[in-house]
């Protein structure tokens, strides 16, 4: 049969080598002499031909894969910044050594560290992180040898500002920043910035101001809510740009995102009004007095549930710390930012399943309805309110509102106030919700400016009148 139809034999052989479901690509034990369609005289030839085909297939299978493709792909992930080919580390070190040579024994204190920071081509207020990273906090000064060894290592391993700053502030072996890591840096800002010179005599306020700024840093930068700022989060934020502006801006209140003293003053005064025993903690009854009980009781309970606080001990004691209050007040007065939307979403998500169900919305709206009735205002039935909210948010999954839905709709502040802030809910009812879209100043900045003016006016009014 083979002699009559050689193509059929070839197909059979190929079938045995490549396609057979049982034999696969392994050595085939089937002999062609056992096949009824091959004559006995041709079986040795067939078996030999089959063996040649099998060897060719095995040789093809075992050919090494060329690494040319993988080698040609350039590196694209640089967790510590992309190395700069034109940087001359030795030249930079020479400039630094020249600065140190101007001081006795080539040792520099924190007071003169600004000159070294500029020689390192860093912003002025990197001086404290540079000083402490070189061991200056232990001896009160830094030697040229200690500093050069430290900075050379930084230049060799860190290739952008974010990775350098993180390396300087972080604990040894850590690739993230925790809240306490910022304290030496911020203490130096308090001690040396001209816009905070008046605080030198009010040392009690130093820790309060520093706590406020630290919380604002984590509020704006730590987008993962982990309590640990990564290099990626630092580089994506505007924090380092604000640190650089500390050198240029003498009026610290112009740096409204992190460092404004006026913003700190507003937050601290609001907390002081609630903290009647002044132990820097408040309970639910204290917080209910905020803004004449504008926040609903059910939402206040959620604020103390641990949904948006990290201190487990304070949570168990049913208290809220000053640091937690910073997050609360900023989130309450500006519900348009991503962090504030996440903050209130966590509070409303009672079962923690990542979506707001109709049950959860009704739970919060019930108290709002009761408040409206007490004010002689007829509330919308929940079904009508629900339809309005769903039309406004337009959730991807019908009947379930996700965090992504609220961030996308751009009207999350109206949504949240509808369910737990009666005063702002009524205020929204009286004006066009689109009037504030695209405004240059944020809701928080507007609130802080207005409240600061009110506080100053109150203090002025309370001062004794001097009749000359």
Automatic annotation (TrEMBL):
<dbReference type="Pfam" id="PF21161">
    <property type="entry name" value="P2R3B_EF-hand"/>
</dbReference>
<keyword id="KW-0479">Metal-binding</keyword>
<dbReference type="GO" id="GO:0000159">
    <property type="term" value="C:protein phosphatase type 2A complex"/>
</dbReference>
<dbReference type="GO" id="GO:0019888">
    <property type="term" value="F:protein phosphatase regulator activity"/>
</dbReference>
<dbReference type="InterPro" id="IPR018247">
    <property type="entry name" value="EF_Hand_1_Ca_BS"/>
</dbReference>
<dbReference type="GO" id="GO:0005509">
    <property type="term" value="F:calcium ion binding"/>
</dbReference>
<protein>
    <submittedName>
        <fullName>Protein phosphatase 2, regulatory subunit B'', beta</fullName>
    </submittedName>
</protein>
<dbReference type="InterPro" id="IPR048855">
    <property type="entry name" value="P2R3A_B_D_EF-hand"/>
</dbReference>
<dbReference type="InterPro" id="IPR011992">
    <property type="entry name" value="EF-hand-dom_pair"/>
</dbReference>
<dbReference type="InterPro" id="IPR002048">
    <property type="entry name" value="EF_hand_dom"/>
</dbReference>
<keyword id="KW-0106">Calcium</keyword>
<feature type="domain" description="EF-hand">
    <location>
        <begin position="336"/>
        <end position="371"/>
    </location>
</feature>
<dbReference type="Pfam" id="PF13499">
    <property type="entry name" value="EF-hand_7"/>
</dbReference>
<dbReference type="InterPro" id="IPR041534">
    <property type="entry name" value="EF-hand_13"/>
</dbReference>
<dbReference type="Pfam" id="PF17958">
    <property type="entry name" value="EF-hand_13"/>
</dbReference>
<comment type="function">
    <text>The B regulatory subunit might modulate substrate selectivity and catalytic activity, and might also direct the localization of the catalytic enzyme to a particular subcellular compartment.</text>
</comment>
């Amino acid at each position: 049969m083979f002699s009559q139809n050689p193509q059929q034999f070839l197909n059979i052989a190929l079938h045995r080598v490549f396609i057979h479901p049982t034999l696969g690509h392994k050595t085939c034990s089937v002999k062609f002499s056992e096949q009824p369609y091959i004559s006995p005289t041709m079986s040795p030839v067939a078996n030999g031909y089959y063996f040649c085909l099998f060897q060719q297939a095995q040789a093809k299978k075992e050919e090494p894969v060329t690494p040319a493709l993988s080698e040609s792909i350039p590196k694209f992930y640089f967790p510590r910044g992309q190395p700069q080919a034109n940087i001359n580390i030795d030249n930079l070190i020479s400039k630094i050594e020249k600065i140190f040579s101007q001081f006795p024994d080539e040792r520099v204190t924190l007071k003169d560290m600004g000159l070294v920071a500029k020689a390192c081509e860093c912003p002025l207020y990197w001086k404290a992180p540079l000083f402490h990273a070189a061991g200056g906090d232990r001896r009160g000064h830094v030697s040229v040898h200690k500093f050069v060894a430290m900075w050379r290592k930084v230049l060799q391993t860190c290739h952008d500002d974010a990775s350098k700053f993180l390396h300087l502030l972080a604990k040894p072996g850590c690739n993230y920043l925790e809240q306490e890591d910022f304290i030496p840096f911020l203490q130096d800002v308090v001690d040396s910035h001209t816009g905070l010179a008046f605080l030198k005599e009010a040392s009690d306020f130093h820790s309060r101001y520093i706590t406020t700024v630290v919380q604002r840093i984590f509020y704006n930068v730590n987008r993962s809510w982990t309590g640990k700022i990564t290099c990626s989060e630092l580089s994506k934020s505007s924090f380092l740009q604000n640190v650089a502006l500390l050198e240029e801006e003498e009026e610290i209140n112009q740096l409204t995102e992190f460092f404004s003293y006026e913003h700190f003053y507003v937050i601290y005064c609001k907390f002081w009004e609630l903290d009647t025993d002044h132990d820097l903690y408040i309970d639910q009854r204290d917080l209910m007095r905020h803004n004449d009980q504008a926040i609903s009781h059910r939402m206040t309970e959620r604020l103390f549930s641990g949904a948006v606080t990290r201190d487990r001990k304070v949570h168990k004691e049913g208290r809220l710390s000053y640091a937690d209050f910073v997050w609360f007040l900023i989130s309450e007065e500006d519900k348009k930012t991503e962090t504030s939307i996440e903050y209130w979403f966590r509070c409303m998500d009672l079962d923690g399943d990542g979506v707001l169900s109709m049950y959860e919305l009704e739970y919060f709206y019930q108290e709002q309805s009761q408040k409206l009735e007490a004010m002689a205002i007829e509330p919308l039935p929940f079904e009508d309110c629900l339809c309005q909210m769903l039309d406004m948010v337009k959730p991807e999954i019908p009947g379930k509102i996700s965090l992504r839905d609220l961030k996308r709709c751009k009207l999350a502040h109206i949504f949240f106030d509808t369910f737990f802030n009666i005063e702002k809910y009524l205020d929204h009812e009286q004006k066009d919700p689109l009037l504030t879209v695209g405004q240059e100043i944020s809701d928080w900045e507007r609130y802080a400016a207005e409240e600061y003016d009110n506080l100053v006016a109150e203090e002025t009014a309370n001062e004794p009148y001097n009749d000359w």
